[in-house]
Design goal:
Length: about 90
Amino acid sequence: MNMGEQKRKEEKREESQFIFRRKNYKFMLIGIAFIVLGFILMAGGGSDDPTIFNPEIYSWRRIRLAPTFILIGFAIEIYAILLNPNKES
Protein backbone atom coordinates (compact mmCIF):
# COMPACT_ATOMS: atom_id res chain seq x y z
CA MET A 1 0.00 0.00 0.00
CA ASN A 2 1.41 3.37 -0.93
CA MET A 3 1.10 6.68 0.92
CA GLY A 4 -1.70 7.98 -1.31
CA GLU A 5 -3.96 5.04 -0.50
CA GLN A 6 -3.30 5.39 3.24
CA LYS A 7 -4.08 9.09 3.12
CA ARG A 8 -7.38 8.46 1.27
CA LYS A 9 -8.40 5.82 3.81
CA GLU A 10 -7.63 8.18 6.70
CA GLU A 11 -9.64 11.00 5.07
CA LYS A 12 -12.55 8.63 4.48
CA ARG A 13 -12.41 7.52 8.13
CA GLU A 14 -12.41 11.14 9.31
CA GLU A 15 -15.41 12.00 7.12
CA SER A 16 -17.52 9.20 8.58
CA GLN A 17 -17.12 10.42 12.18
CA PHE A 18 -19.99 12.21 13.84
CA ILE A 19 -19.60 15.75 15.07
CA PHE A 20 -21.37 14.99 18.36
CA ARG A 21 -20.69 12.14 20.73
CA ARG A 22 -22.93 10.12 23.01
CA LYS A 23 -22.60 12.67 25.84
CA ASN A 24 -23.80 15.47 23.54
CA TYR A 25 -26.85 13.48 22.48
CA LYS A 26 -27.74 12.68 26.10
CA PHE A 27 -27.77 16.38 26.97
CA MET A 28 -29.76 17.13 23.80
CA LEU A 29 -32.43 14.60 24.78
CA ILE A 30 -32.58 16.03 28.30
CA GLY A 31 -33.02 19.53 26.81
CA ILE A 32 -35.77 18.34 24.49
CA ALA A 33 -37.52 16.67 27.42
CA PHE A 34 -37.46 19.98 29.36
CA ILE A 35 -38.88 21.85 26.35
CA VAL A 36 -41.64 19.30 25.79
CA LEU A 37 -42.51 19.30 29.49
CA GLY A 38 -42.73 23.10 29.41
CA PHE A 39 -45.15 23.04 26.50
CA ILE A 40 -47.24 20.34 28.17
CA LEU A 41 -47.44 22.44 31.34
CA MET A 42 -48.45 25.45 29.26
CA ALA A 43 -51.28 23.62 27.46
CA GLY A 44 -54.92 23.90 28.44
CA GLY A 45 -56.68 26.48 30.54
CA GLY A 46 -59.08 27.53 27.85
CA SER A 47 -62.85 27.37 28.01
CA ASP A 48 -65.07 25.12 25.92
CA ASP A 49 -67.61 27.95 25.64
CA PRO A 50 -66.07 31.07 24.04
CA THR A 51 -68.47 33.36 25.92
CA ILE A 52 -67.17 32.24 29.33
CA PHE A 53 -63.78 33.48 30.56
CA ASN A 54 -61.65 31.00 32.45
CA PRO A 55 -59.08 32.74 34.70
CA GLU A 56 -57.12 29.45 34.92
CA ILE A 57 -55.32 30.53 31.73
CA TYR A 58 -53.33 32.97 33.89
CA SER A 59 -52.28 30.40 36.47
CA TRP A 60 -48.78 30.37 37.96
CA ARG A 61 -48.02 27.12 36.16
CA ARG A 62 -48.73 28.57 32.72
CA ILE A 63 -47.22 32.03 33.25
CA ARG A 64 -44.08 31.26 35.29
CA LEU A 65 -43.30 27.55 35.51
CA ALA A 66 -43.79 26.42 31.89
CA PRO A 67 -41.72 29.21 30.28
CA THR A 68 -38.98 28.60 32.84
CA PHE A 69 -38.82 24.93 31.85
CA ILE A 70 -38.66 25.91 28.19
CA LEU A 71 -35.82 28.39 28.77
CA ILE A 72 -33.91 25.83 30.84
CA GLY A 73 -34.40 23.33 28.01
CA PHE A 74 -32.96 25.77 25.47
CA ALA A 75 -30.01 26.47 27.76
CA ILE A 76 -29.34 22.73 28.03
CA GLU A 77 -29.52 22.46 24.24
CA ILE A 78 -26.94 25.23 23.83
CA TYR A 79 -24.71 23.52 26.38
CA ALA A 80 -25.08 20.19 24.54
CA ILE A 81 -24.03 21.79 21.26
CA LEU A 82 -21.03 23.59 22.76
CA LEU A 83 -19.91 20.64 24.91
CA ASN A 84 -16.61 19.10 23.84
CA PRO A 85 -16.84 15.39 24.74
CA ASN A 86 -13.21 14.75 23.75
CA LYS A 87 -11.89 17.11 26.42
CA GLU A 88 -10.60 15.22 29.44
CA SER A 89 -11.84 16.62 32.74
